Amino acid sequence: MTLTQLSAFVLVARLGSVKAAASALGVSEPAVSQALAALRRYLDDPLLTRSGNGMTMTPGGSRLLTIAAQMVSLGAEAESAVRSAQGAAEQLRLAAPSTIVEFVAGPLADAFTSRSAGTIEVSAGVSATAEMAVLVSQRLADLALGPYLGADRSLGLVSEPVFRCRLVVLASPEARFRGSPAQWPWLVEPAATDPGSDVSRLLRAVGVPESRLSVFPNQTAAWEAAGRGAGVAPGIAHLAVHQLRRRELHVLDVPGTPVDLCWHATTLAADRRSPATASLRHFLGTPEAMKLLRSPGAGVPPSRFRPPVYVTIWS
């Protein structure tokens, strides 16, 4: 029985499928299946069985979940303790939606790392909405920046508002679109395919069918296409400030918009989070951080969130 096997079990149980667990851990589905199979053999219990709504835990699986979650969390804590004793910089992992990683996470990480005089290093990666709470609760991520994640009290998370913004629909000032907004060409970044994302909720509210979507590798690429008149692109208004000032884009009046949003910082409870995580959480409330949140960077192509090494060595 290993930490990799327990990590696989916890994430499959929490997220409801092998596919979702593999995505959260950044490994292949066969790798998760193999780890889960090895744990089942070791404990001589199915632990999880497929059902119409995803996965159902056996009585043994239900008892194991709490213990396994604690062990995975302690494994992350142990890794951090050993690194600290060796004099290595403490690693903080930030999970966020793709737009935040593309425009905001880099400048925030650089500013915070500079304040820590190199004793703390921050990495950021894209995570789906459903994954974030589980990653933080298992110490696979230290802080999530994005949607509110405090609904499941059993995870022991604190999710606090840090920044308000607006979701709008953007297009070229010269472009003209006829008919219902649901039938316009919509140019979106990958988060639009995440059912829990703000953009996905907007698309459902407008009634946009999948056939009208064009998914671009990042938000900047989607906005560039919109600027050429290829369609309309949803986005966070203040992140598009440069394109709006240059009149490459303007805000369209679409029913249901603008959508008022609030980014939340989610961590473990104060008595369980690391000092470095507590320091980062405090930093997010400072005027320096607020300025960075309001003033987007140039836009860096976001990458997937990568958990600690010990849970990614299977693939």
Automatic annotation (TrEMBL):
SUPFAM superfamilies xrefs: Periplasmic binding protein-like II (SSF53850), Winged helix' DNA-binding domain (SSF46785)
Signal peptide from the UniProt entry: 1-20
Taxonomy of the source species: Bacteria, Bacillati, Actinomycetota, Actinomycetes, Pseudonocardiales
Superkingdom of the source species: Bacteria
Keyword set includes RNA-binding: no
GO molecular function list: DNA-binding transcription factor activity; transcription cis-regulatory region binding
Residue span, HTH lysR-type domain: 1-58
PROSITE patterns in the cross-refs: HTH_LYSR (PS50931)
Sorted UniProt keywords: DNA-binding, Signal, Transcription, Transcription regulation
Protein name (database record): LysR family transcriptional regulator
Family statement: Belongs to the LysR transcriptional regulatory family.
Native organism: Pseudonocardia hydrocarbonoxydans
Pfam families named in the record: HTH_1, LysR_substrate
Keyword Heme carried by entry: no
